[in-house]
Amino acid sequence: MAQQVQLLTTVEEFIKKPHQHYINGQWMPSMSGATMDDVDPSNRQVLTTVARGQAEDVQAAVEAAGRAFRDKAWRLMSPGSKSILIWRLADSMAAHLEELAQLDSIDMGMPIRQAQYGTIPMAIDHMRYMAGWATKIEGETIPVSAGAFFNYTVRQPVGVVGAIIPWNFPLLMAVWKLGAALAAGCTVVLRPAEQSPLSVLRLAELITEVGFPPGVINVVTGYGPEAGAALAANPGVNKISFTGSTEVGKSIMRTAADRMTRVSLELGGKSPNIICADANLKRAISGSMLGIFMNQGEVCSAGSRILVERQIYDQALEQMADYAKNMRVGSPLDPKTQMGPVVSQEQFQRVLGYIESARQEGATLVAGGDKMVQAGSGFYIQPTVFANVTDAMTISREEIFGPVVAVMPFDTVEEAIERANATEYGLAAGVWTENVRTAHYLAQSLEAGTVWVNAYHVYDAAAPWGGFKQSGFGREMGHHALDLYTEMKDVWISLQ
Length: 496
Description:
The chain is of the alpha/beta class. The protein folds into two domains: 9-267 and 471-491, 3-Layer(aba) Sandwich (Aldehyde Dehydrogenase, Chain A, domain 1), CATH 3.40.605.10; 272-460, Aldehyde Dehydrogenase, Chain A, domain 2, CATH 3.40.309. The chain contains 16 helices and 22 strands. The chain has helices spanning 9-16, 55-70, 72-75, 79-95, 97-108, 112-133, 170-184, 198-210, 224-233, 246-257, 281-293, 313-325, 345-360, 394-397, 413-421, 436-445, and strands spanning 21-23, 26-28, 35-40, 45-51, 141-142, 149-157, 160-164, 187-191, 217-219, 239-243, 262-266, 272-275, 305-309, 364-367, 384-387, 404-410, 425-426, 428-432, 450-453, 468-469, 472-473, 486-494. β1 and β2 form a beta hairpin. The radius of gyration is 23 Å and the shape is globular. The protein starts with 8 loop residues before the first helix and ends with a strand. The relative contact order is 0.14. The model has no long low-confidence stretch (mean pLDDT 97).
């Protein structure tokens, strides 16, 4: 019998509360009165209802953010005071870590240990890292030759940020946007995904408690085509920061082009993971399985294409199949669970559709490949491994965003590079080898924003994150993230 984590009383009480928009420091229902259901993916039951935002709710939030950006309480707040506020929010998140972890777990199916020891601590660390940058955004002096002038640059906040985040890492994705935007002095309207808004709404309560001026941070819940699209199109938004699918990212770019709104996009992936014959195979197998099955494969950087050097291919495939068959899939609140349910009925059907397409196109199923009725009535899918996959097959080309991996042999390093790069995506890649030359050569040759060598899914607040090609542009995390939320101004002072 699975031993589930007992929900905290505060979490149970929070779920039962009415969930409204957070605008100008106040909780407000949708102007239309509309709500939407938030479904528990582990049992398909309605967990709670949340306000369903429309264009008019977004407009109210954008106006509040605009007023806050111009108001002296935030605009003239010293960098040190901003830093203290952001750090205070991180401390509050740390004090409520278990609540936030449980909310992400029940809301989107994330295994509780991953939330407790991975994503929530990472979100807290990210907020603290960005708090330090609030006092370190600097310009430069430039020796110009145009005459007797003193020339210098300053970095100023871009203004109102519309932040649109996905459902797979709810709190972490929110903090990736908020931390850098706040450190730069921007104000924010955040639209969490409709599938998993609860931890972000709890974060909004903490934002009030730590003392951010009203309107600096606003949260509008709602569906992507309604609230998300309205935020992207709102003329009061100076910059859109979006994490999600490439298809939606392209739509946001088209919308933003009409007003030349600044855009940064962190989009999809079809990440290659290359295992060379000289790799530590035990380490490579466990790392590669983490690479695809972490968070049910609902990770933009999931290593969904594993390329294995032919002389160890059969051995590696057998070990991967055994690993997948022995994974513990079950309730996200069970501390022993390694993989929970996918987030929704829509995603459930999408992943099963890709599995069926792989069968029809001739791939060989060596593990998984079906839904899990025995796990209950939730959206559970077995960890799935396919062999005999060609580069032309659908599961080799399209992002599945689920626990499905294609394992393919290669003969030379050059072949592995060519096939790894033969994709419209370029978010991440993995390399497993004990040869330092091969490691560096592959790291330089792979067209990806991040390359892990003898590891996978390693992240840090100080390290930049973003993609090549249709995986987007701009870098979140690290000091590079501040470039997304600041404008450079050049000042000339005549000395004559």
